[in-house]
Amino acid sequence: MLIYLPDEKVMFMGDVIMPYLGAPFVEEGDLQGLFDAIDVVVSRNPQHLLHGHEPLTRVFSSPPILSHLKTDLRWLREQVLTAIRRGDERTAIHESNLIPPDLLANQLDAYQPYYILREHVIDRIYDQNVGYWEANLQGLAHPGRIDRGELLVDYLGLSEAQIVKAADRLNTDGKYAMAADLLESAQVKFPSSNSVKRAKRFAYLKLMEKSQNTDPFKFIIYSGKIGEQTPQINAESAK
Questions:
Q1: Which contiguous run of DSSP H or E holds residue 178?
Q2: Same domain, 21 and 51
Q3: Residue range(s) defining the domain that contains residue 153
Q4: What are the tens digits of pLDDT across the range 51-65?
Q5: Are both 90 and 179 inside the same structural domain?
Q6: 169-194 pLDDT, tens per residue?
Q7: pLDDT for the residue numbered 53
Q8: Among 49, 91, 134, 197, which residue is least crowded by beta carbons within 10 Å?
Q9: Cβ distance 188 to 160 under 8 Å?
Q10: How far apart (Å, rounded) are the C-alpha atoms in residues 124 and 20?
Q11: pTM of the model
């Protein structure tokens, strides 16, 4: 929803620019629709932009920034589509660290908005253009946590201590998502293990720390995995 107040030169944008192109839990989000909305904002050229959430107002703060962002996201879309046609895995596309050639040189004010959106734009484009069966054979079969737990313990013969040691090494190397995934599978076989719970909690705390300033949905999900309560921000504590 876009509401323009010409006398005040203010545009209210609702949730037009959501970093997830809609909520990440449902199949929605239209990148071209975002581009069209940016065109409307740029054509009106308001002095002030007010989004549905304060952090968005702070980051996506002006028509020039949105104009740069559109250029950068169009470049990103072409790169992702090319990678999909090449048969690249989603992980490989993320790990290629796609940054438009002139973004850092000429568009520094658009870097943070681009960075916040990049991961979710890649996921949305990939999801819309790849079928059930992905390039890495994901989707052909459906192994779950129990299967992976059996692989680790019953077939590879790993002990609780060995798994925790591997998770600690992953955490030390900053591979928190891999550590968390390993420990989720291991907990199926060692549900009462304090060492597994301790390593798992550490991995999710680091994932919370990593996403706290850029991805509130991830922050909420990671905190829920370990039952971590976050303090409520109210008017008194904010003073």
A1: helix 176-189
A2: yes
A3: 145-229
A4: 878 788 888 889 999
A5: no
A6: 999 999 999 999 999 999 999 999 99
A7: 80
A8: 91
A9: no
A10: 8
A11: 0.85
